[in-house]
Request: fold
Amino acid sequence: MRPLTAWMRAVGVLYLVLGATWFPGIAERMLDSRIPGFDAPTDGVAARGYTDWMFGFGIDLFVIGVFLLAASRRPERATVLVWLVITLSATRGIGLDLYHIAMGYPVVSMVAFIALHTAIIASGVWALRAQERAPATAGETA
Reply:
């Protein structure tokens, strides 16, 4: 399997899993770990509003995961999608994690996500470069 195909599939599955954790039913059970010290009733309007709002974020992640998996059959035609994921990992990922640290969220979990985003970025750039260097073979869809 070519590196870009493997990257798209691995990150696609990761995005499906992460996206699903923001779906209603799952997100409610994770509220205390996501916002330590959440001081509103977990069955109240604030908790419901938060999980409903973040459901949209989960849908975004889930859709990107689906597109990565679908595009992995012809990765040479989807490099712009890979660059989108890399850019989102840098901005919405690392940038937002740094903002969360500045706002007082737990540093350890934010640093873990910064490491994850950094790995996605670095491995994505590496996979794109490997794709550019690899000779195309007729009929290869991996």
The chain has a mean pLDDT of 92.
